[in-house]
Amino acid sequence: MAHEDENAHGHDHGHDHGHERGPVADASVRVARASDAPAVGFVQAVVFREAYAAVLAPEVLATFEPRAFANAWRATLEGDQSGDGVLLVACAGEQVVGFAAVGASDDADAHAGTAELLVLGVHPDARRQGHGSRLLHAVVDTTRGRGRSELAAWVLAADEATRGFLTAAGMLADGAHRERVVSQDGNTTGEIRLSAAVVDSEGAEQA
């Protein structure tokens, strides 16, 4: 997973599993605005610290600061948008409680029709309310809307919860794996890639 204390992207950690506790008032997903950067940065810092607690030293986790993530997202949202990259946010009322980013895959073996789920996270206090599932559905819609037919995501090999969430949505391990550098000391952690077609022969969603 691209560990984005440097560029504010990552992969899908800290998701909810799509289990509904009950109706969530005014729950929605929309395209992010530059003004959302602080809220996204806050959620990302919480999610990343939790997701990497088992694989990174405390001093490295401490570098996951909301302001750094927020500044990177603000620069992205205020800058020239390249390609088909999109940042989405999940909201409970007006409050941003989760986020997801999708863009073109840059994997060497990816074909032109492949998009990548770069990150998906939901604040721990807002999980099990369907926000993760709504974000993933919006990612699929965005992928299809950009004319792409496949969605891929890199996840921590040890993160069974995230893999289970994405697998339940139709994404399966495709055999690709890599070691990602996650600290300035050169420490690495293993990742596996999941992928799925987002349209079938009749154009129906699959992921």
TrEMBL record:
It comes from Terrabacter aerolatus. It comes from the Bacteria. Residues 46-195 form the N-acetyltransferase domain. The lineage of its organism: Bacteria, Bacillati, Actinomycetota, Actinomycetes, Micrococcales. GO terms for molecular function: acyltransferase activity, transferring groups other than amino-acyl groups. InterPro entries: Acyl_CoA_acyltransferase (IPR016181), Bact_Acetyltransf (IPR050832), GNAT_dom (IPR000182). Residues 1-22 are annotated as: Disordered. This is N-acetyltransferase domain-containing protein. PROSITE patterns: GNAT (PS51186). Keywords: Acyltransferase, Transferase.
